[in-house]
Here is the input.
Amino acid sequence: MAISTERGTPPAGMTPVPGATPVAWPYRNLLALEDLTAEEIVHILDTAEAFRDVSTRSVKKVPALRGRVVANLFFEDSTRTRTSFTLAAQRLSADLVDFSSKGSSVSKGENLRDTLRNIEAMGVDVVVIRHPASGAAAMAAQCVRCSVVNAGDGRHEHPTQGLLDIFTIRQAKGRIEGLNVAIVGDVANSRVARSNLHGLRKLGASVTFVGPATLVPRAFESLGARICHDLDAVIGEFDVINMLRVQRERMASNVFPSFEEYSRLFGLSGERLRRARPDVLVLHPGPINRGIELTADVADGPRSAILQQVTNGLAVRMAVLFLCHQAAGG
Ligand code: NCD
Here is the structure.
Protein backbone atom coordinates (compact mmCIF):
# COMPACT_ATOMS: atom_id res chain seq x y z
CA MET A 1 0.00 0.00 0.00
CA ALA A 2 1.26 3.48 -0.78
CA ILE A 3 1.97 5.32 2.46
CA SER A 4 1.32 8.99 2.37
CA THR A 5 3.75 10.98 4.47
CA GLU A 6 3.65 13.96 2.15
CA ARG A 7 3.29 17.48 3.53
CA GLY A 8 0.90 18.28 0.70
CA THR A 9 0.86 21.94 1.67
CA PRO A 10 2.65 24.47 -0.48
CA PRO A 11 3.37 27.35 1.86
CA ALA A 12 1.64 29.92 -0.38
CA GLY A 13 -1.71 29.35 1.29
CA MET A 14 -0.23 30.23 4.66
CA THR A 15 1.45 33.47 3.60
CA PRO A 16 0.59 36.16 6.14
CA VAL A 17 -1.87 38.70 4.73
CA PRO A 18 0.13 41.73 3.47
CA GLY A 19 -0.31 44.69 5.78
CA ALA A 20 -1.99 42.62 8.51
CA THR A 21 -1.15 43.88 11.96
CA PRO A 22 1.22 41.41 13.62
CA VAL A 23 -1.38 39.57 15.70
CA ALA A 24 -1.01 36.03 16.98
CA TRP A 25 -3.05 34.76 14.04
CA PRO A 26 -2.09 36.47 10.74
CA TYR A 27 -3.35 33.82 8.29
CA ARG A 28 -6.39 33.98 6.08
CA ASN A 29 -6.36 30.16 5.76
CA LEU A 30 -6.12 27.15 8.03
CA LEU A 31 -4.64 24.30 5.99
CA ALA A 32 -2.51 22.16 8.31
CA LEU A 33 -1.27 22.13 11.91
CA GLU A 34 2.18 21.25 10.58
CA ASP A 35 2.42 24.83 9.29
CA LEU A 36 1.74 26.47 12.67
CA THR A 37 3.84 27.42 15.68
CA ALA A 38 2.96 26.35 19.22
CA GLU A 39 1.94 29.97 19.97
CA GLU A 40 -0.43 30.06 17.02
CA ILE A 41 -2.07 26.80 18.07
CA VAL A 42 -2.47 28.05 21.64
CA HIS A 43 -3.99 31.28 20.31
CA ILE A 44 -6.69 29.31 18.45
CA LEU A 45 -7.38 27.19 21.56
CA ASP A 46 -7.67 30.29 23.74
CA THR A 47 -9.99 31.96 21.23
CA ALA A 48 -12.12 28.78 21.19
CA GLU A 49 -12.29 28.96 24.98
CA ALA A 50 -13.88 32.39 24.67
CA PHE A 51 -16.40 31.09 22.10
CA ARG A 52 -17.34 28.06 24.21
CA ASP A 53 -19.53 30.16 26.48
CA VAL A 54 -21.68 31.24 23.52
CA SER A 55 -23.07 27.71 23.19
CA THR A 56 -24.28 27.72 26.79
CA ARG A 57 -26.38 30.90 26.41
CA SER A 58 -30.09 30.86 25.61
CA VAL A 59 -29.34 33.01 22.52
CA LYS A 60 -26.45 31.08 20.95
CA LYS A 61 -25.19 33.80 18.60
CA VAL A 62 -22.57 36.52 18.36
CA PRO A 63 -22.45 39.06 15.53
CA ALA A 64 -18.77 38.46 14.63
CA LEU A 65 -19.44 37.39 11.00
CA ARG A 66 -22.76 39.18 10.41
CA GLY A 67 -23.25 39.94 6.72
CA ARG A 68 -20.46 37.50 5.72
CA VAL A 69 -20.90 34.28 3.78
CA VAL A 70 -19.37 30.89 4.63
CA ALA A 71 -19.54 28.11 1.99
CA ASN A 72 -19.30 24.44 2.97
CA LEU A 73 -17.75 22.67 0.00
CA PHE A 74 -17.79 18.94 0.75
CA PHE A 75 -16.54 16.43 -1.82
CA GLU A 76 -16.75 13.55 0.68
CA ASP A 77 -19.45 12.34 3.05
CA SER A 78 -19.53 13.91 6.48
CA THR A 79 -22.04 14.32 9.29
CA ARG A 80 -20.18 15.69 12.27
CA THR A 81 -17.67 17.99 10.64
CA ARG A 82 -20.16 19.49 8.20
CA THR A 83 -22.84 20.06 10.85
CA SER A 84 -20.22 21.48 13.19
CA PHE A 85 -18.99 24.03 10.63
CA THR A 86 -22.61 24.89 9.75
CA LEU A 87 -23.52 25.58 13.37
CA ALA A 88 -20.25 27.43 13.97
CA ALA A 89 -20.95 29.75 11.02
CA GLN A 90 -24.54 30.28 12.18
CA ARG A 91 -23.45 31.06 15.74
CA LEU A 92 -21.15 33.72 14.31
CA SER A 93 -24.22 35.14 12.44
CA ALA A 94 -22.76 34.37 8.99
CA ASP A 95 -24.93 33.31 6.04
CA LEU A 96 -24.18 29.76 4.95
CA VAL A 97 -24.15 28.07 1.56
CA ASP A 98 -24.01 24.27 1.64
CA PHE A 99 -22.49 22.64 -1.38
CA SER A 100 -21.87 18.92 -2.07
CA SER A 101 -20.27 17.34 -5.11
CA LYS A 102 -23.39 15.19 -5.49
CA GLY A 103 -26.12 17.18 -7.21
CA SER A 104 -23.74 19.97 -8.29
CA SER A 105 -21.88 20.83 -11.51
CA VAL A 106 -18.95 18.70 -10.25
CA SER A 107 -20.94 15.65 -11.30
CA LYS A 108 -21.10 17.26 -14.77
CA GLY A 109 -17.29 17.40 -14.92
CA GLU A 110 -16.48 20.88 -13.55
CA ASN A 111 -12.96 21.01 -12.13
CA LEU A 112 -12.14 22.13 -8.59
CA ARG A 113 -10.62 25.44 -9.67
CA ASP A 114 -13.71 26.42 -11.69
CA THR A 115 -16.03 25.38 -8.87
CA LEU A 116 -14.05 27.48 -6.41
CA ARG A 117 -13.79 30.53 -8.67
CA ASN A 118 -17.55 30.44 -9.28
CA ILE A 119 -18.30 30.18 -5.59
CA GLU A 120 -15.95 33.06 -4.87
CA ALA A 121 -17.61 35.14 -7.61
CA MET A 122 -20.83 34.89 -5.61
CA GLY A 123 -19.18 36.84 -2.78
CA VAL A 124 -18.26 34.05 -0.39
CA ASP A 125 -15.88 35.13 2.41
CA VAL A 126 -14.78 31.73 3.77
CA VAL A 127 -14.68 28.38 1.95
CA VAL A 128 -14.65 25.27 4.16
CA ILE A 129 -13.40 22.41 1.99
CA ARG A 130 -13.31 18.63 2.43
CA HIS A 131 -11.80 16.66 -0.44
CA PRO A 132 -10.49 13.11 -0.99
CA ALA A 133 -7.18 14.38 -2.45
CA SER A 134 -4.25 15.27 -0.15
CA GLY A 135 -3.25 18.87 -0.87
CA ALA A 136 -6.69 19.91 -2.21
CA ALA A 137 -7.17 22.57 0.47
CA ALA A 138 -3.78 24.13 -0.26
CA MET A 139 -4.60 24.13 -3.95
CA ALA A 140 -7.95 25.77 -3.19
CA ALA A 141 -6.15 28.49 -1.23
CA GLN A 142 -4.14 29.30 -4.33
CA CYS A 143 -7.23 29.53 -6.54
CA VAL A 144 -9.23 32.05 -4.50
CA ARG A 145 -8.62 35.21 -2.50
CA CYS A 146 -11.18 34.45 0.22
CA SER A 147 -10.30 32.40 3.32
CA VAL A 148 -9.96 28.62 2.98
CA VAL A 149 -10.37 26.23 5.91
CA ASN A 150 -9.34 22.60 5.46
CA ALA A 151 -12.06 20.24 6.74
CA GLY A 152 -10.00 17.15 5.77
CA ASP A 153 -7.92 16.59 2.62
CA GLY A 154 -7.38 12.92 1.77
CA ARG A 155 -4.84 11.31 4.07
CA HIS A 156 -3.05 14.59 4.71
CA GLU A 157 -4.55 16.69 7.53
CA HIS A 158 -7.77 17.52 9.33
CA PRO A 159 -6.59 20.53 11.34
CA THR A 160 -9.84 21.44 13.11
CA GLN A 161 -10.20 17.82 14.30
CA GLY A 162 -6.61 17.96 15.61
CA LEU A 163 -7.39 21.25 17.35
CA LEU A 164 -10.59 20.00 18.94
CA ASP A 165 -8.82 16.86 20.17
CA ILE A 166 -6.04 18.97 21.69
CA PHE A 167 -8.62 21.37 23.16
CA THR A 168 -10.45 18.42 24.78
CA ILE A 169 -7.19 17.01 26.18
CA ARG A 170 -6.18 20.41 27.57
CA GLN A 171 -9.63 20.79 29.15
CA ALA A 172 -9.42 17.38 30.86
CA LYS A 173 -5.75 17.35 31.83
CA GLY A 174 -5.05 21.06 32.25
CA ARG A 175 -1.96 20.88 30.02
CA ILE A 176 -0.48 19.25 26.92
CA GLU A 177 3.22 19.47 27.71
CA GLY A 178 4.67 16.22 29.04
CA LEU A 179 1.62 14.08 28.24
CA ASN A 180 1.93 10.65 26.65
CA VAL A 181 -0.65 10.24 23.89
CA ALA A 182 -1.42 7.02 22.00
CA ILE A 183 -3.09 7.18 18.61
CA VAL A 184 -4.37 3.69 17.88
CA GLY A 185 -5.47 2.02 14.66
CA ASP A 186 -5.62 3.02 11.04
CA VAL A 187 -2.87 5.64 11.10
CA ALA A 188 -1.83 5.08 7.48
CA ASN A 189 -5.18 6.32 6.19
CA SER A 190 -5.79 8.94 8.82
CA ARG A 191 -5.56 12.70 8.40
CA VAL A 192 -6.68 12.96 12.04
CA ALA A 193 -3.51 11.14 13.15
CA ARG A 194 -1.26 13.53 11.24
CA SER A 195 -2.94 16.67 12.57
CA ASN A 196 -2.82 15.31 16.12
CA LEU A 197 0.83 14.35 15.78
CA HIS A 198 1.94 17.76 14.56
CA GLY A 199 -0.18 19.74 17.01
CA LEU A 200 0.59 17.62 20.07
CA ARG A 201 4.34 17.49 19.45
CA LYS A 202 4.53 21.25 18.95
CA LEU A 203 2.87 21.67 22.35
CA GLY A 204 5.31 19.28 24.03
CA ALA A 205 3.43 15.95 24.19
CA SER A 206 4.90 12.59 23.11
CA VAL A 207 2.92 10.67 20.52
CA THR A 208 2.93 6.89 19.99
CA PHE A 209 1.19 5.39 16.96
CA VAL A 210 -0.10 1.89 17.78
CA GLY A 211 -1.53 -0.64 15.34
CA PRO A 212 -0.73 -3.45 12.93
CA ALA A 213 2.40 -2.94 10.81
CA THR A 214 0.24 -2.67 7.69
CA LEU A 215 -1.56 0.36 9.16
CA VAL A 216 1.26 1.80 11.30
CA PRO A 217 4.40 1.65 9.18
CA ARG A 218 7.85 2.62 10.48
CA ALA A 219 7.90 5.51 7.98
CA PHE A 220 5.96 7.58 10.52
CA GLU A 221 9.02 7.70 12.78
CA SER A 222 10.34 10.33 10.39
CA LEU A 223 7.41 12.56 11.40
CA GLY A 224 8.38 12.29 15.07
CA ALA A 225 6.06 9.50 16.24
CA ARG A 226 7.08 6.46 18.26
CA ILE A 227 5.76 3.29 16.58
CA CYS A 228 4.40 0.25 18.40
CA HIS A 229 2.59 -2.85 17.15
CA ASP A 230 1.54 -4.31 20.52
CA LEU A 231 -1.13 -2.34 22.37
CA ASP A 232 -1.11 -4.56 25.46
CA ALA A 233 2.63 -4.04 25.93
CA VAL A 234 2.28 -0.25 26.22
CA ILE A 235 -1.31 0.47 27.29
CA GLY A 236 -0.31 1.42 30.85
CA GLU A 237 1.89 4.30 29.65
CA PHE A 238 -0.68 6.73 28.31
CA ASP A 239 -2.53 9.77 29.62
CA VAL A 240 -4.68 9.82 26.48
CA ILE A 241 -5.72 7.09 24.04
CA ASN A 242 -7.18 8.37 20.76
CA MET A 243 -8.86 5.52 18.86
CA LEU A 244 -9.06 5.96 15.09
CA ARG A 245 -11.81 4.64 12.87
CA VAL A 246 -10.92 1.74 10.59
CA GLN A 247 -11.30 3.58 7.27
CA ARG A 248 -12.64 0.81 5.04
CA GLU A 249 -13.30 3.27 2.21
CA ARG A 250 -9.61 4.23 1.95
CA MET A 251 -8.15 0.84 2.67
CA ALA A 252 -6.43 -1.58 0.33
CA SER A 253 -7.69 -5.12 0.87
CA ASN A 254 -6.00 -7.55 3.28
CA VAL A 255 -4.37 -5.02 5.62
CA PHE A 256 -5.46 -7.29 8.49
CA PRO A 257 -6.89 -10.80 8.49
CA SER A 258 -10.33 -10.05 9.96
CA PHE A 259 -12.22 -7.41 11.94
CA GLU A 260 -12.47 -9.93 14.80
CA GLU A 261 -8.69 -10.19 14.97
CA TYR A 262 -8.24 -6.43 14.62
CA SER A 263 -10.60 -5.73 17.49
CA ARG A 264 -9.05 -8.48 19.64
CA LEU A 265 -5.56 -6.97 19.23
CA PHE A 266 -6.24 -3.24 18.86
CA GLY A 267 -9.81 -2.59 19.98
CA LEU A 268 -10.43 -0.90 23.33
CA SER A 269 -12.67 -3.08 25.50
CA GLY A 270 -13.56 -2.52 29.14
CA GLU A 271 -11.24 -5.38 30.04
CA ARG A 272 -8.27 -3.86 28.20
CA LEU A 273 -9.03 -0.41 29.58
CA ARG A 274 -8.61 -1.77 33.13
CA ARG A 275 -4.91 -2.14 32.36
CA ALA A 276 -4.63 1.52 31.33
CA ARG A 277 -3.97 4.36 33.80
CA PRO A 278 -7.07 4.97 35.94
CA ASP A 279 -7.30 8.59 34.73
CA VAL A 280 -6.72 7.81 31.04
CA LEU A 281 -8.80 9.92 28.63
CA VAL A 282 -10.37 8.06 25.68
CA LEU A 283 -11.01 9.94 22.43
CA HIS A 284 -12.44 8.96 19.03
CA PRO A 285 -13.02 11.37 16.12
CA GLY A 286 -16.18 9.57 15.00
CA PRO A 287 -17.92 7.95 13.32
CA ILE A 288 -17.34 4.94 15.64
CA ASN A 289 -17.52 1.37 14.38
CA ARG A 290 -18.87 0.04 17.66
CA GLY A 291 -17.46 -3.37 18.49
CA ILE A 292 -14.40 -2.84 16.26
CA GLU A 293 -12.44 0.15 17.63
CA LEU A 294 -14.34 0.48 20.91
CA THR A 295 -16.85 -1.57 22.83
CA ALA A 296 -20.01 0.24 23.91
CA ASP A 297 -19.05 0.24 27.62
CA VAL A 298 -15.85 2.16 26.76
CA ALA A 299 -17.44 4.51 24.21
CA ASP A 300 -20.18 5.47 26.68
CA GLY A 301 -18.14 5.02 29.87
CA PRO A 302 -16.61 7.49 32.33
CA ARG A 303 -13.17 7.69 30.65
CA SER A 304 -14.68 8.63 27.27
CA ALA A 305 -14.61 12.29 26.16
CA ILE A 306 -16.14 11.57 22.77
CA LEU A 307 -19.19 13.81 23.17
CA GLN A 308 -17.08 16.59 24.70
CA GLN A 309 -15.00 16.41 21.52
CA VAL A 310 -18.13 17.08 19.47
CA THR A 311 -19.19 19.97 21.70
CA ASN A 312 -15.70 21.47 21.68
CA GLY A 313 -15.52 21.12 17.91
CA LEU A 314 -18.09 23.84 17.57
CA ALA A 315 -16.13 26.34 19.65
CA VAL A 316 -12.89 25.47 17.84
CA ARG A 317 -14.53 25.96 14.42
CA MET A 318 -16.06 29.26 15.51
CA ALA A 319 -12.58 30.39 16.52
CA VAL A 320 -11.02 29.25 13.23
CA LEU A 321 -13.69 30.88 11.03
CA PHE A 322 -13.44 34.07 13.06
CA LEU A 323 -9.63 34.28 13.12
CA CYS A 324 -9.14 33.47 9.43
CA HIS A 325 -11.79 35.95 8.37
CA GLN A 326 -10.36 38.63 10.64
CA ALA A 327 -6.86 38.11 9.24
CA ALA A 328 -8.27 38.43 5.72
CA GLY A 329 -9.41 41.94 6.61
CA GLY A 330 -12.92 40.98 7.77
C1 NCD B 1 -12.62 11.90 10.50
C2 NCD B 1 -12.38 12.21 9.03
O1 NCD B 1 -13.31 12.40 8.26
O2 NCD B 1 -11.23 12.29 8.70
N1 NCD B 1 -13.92 12.10 10.98
C3 NCD B 1 -14.39 13.31 11.28
O3 NCD B 1 -14.01 14.31 10.71
N2 NCD B 1 -15.27 13.37 12.28
C4 NCD B 1 -12.17 10.55 10.83
C5 NCD B 1 -12.84 9.42 10.14
O4 NCD B 1 -13.62 9.59 9.22
O5 NCD B 1 -12.54 8.31 10.55
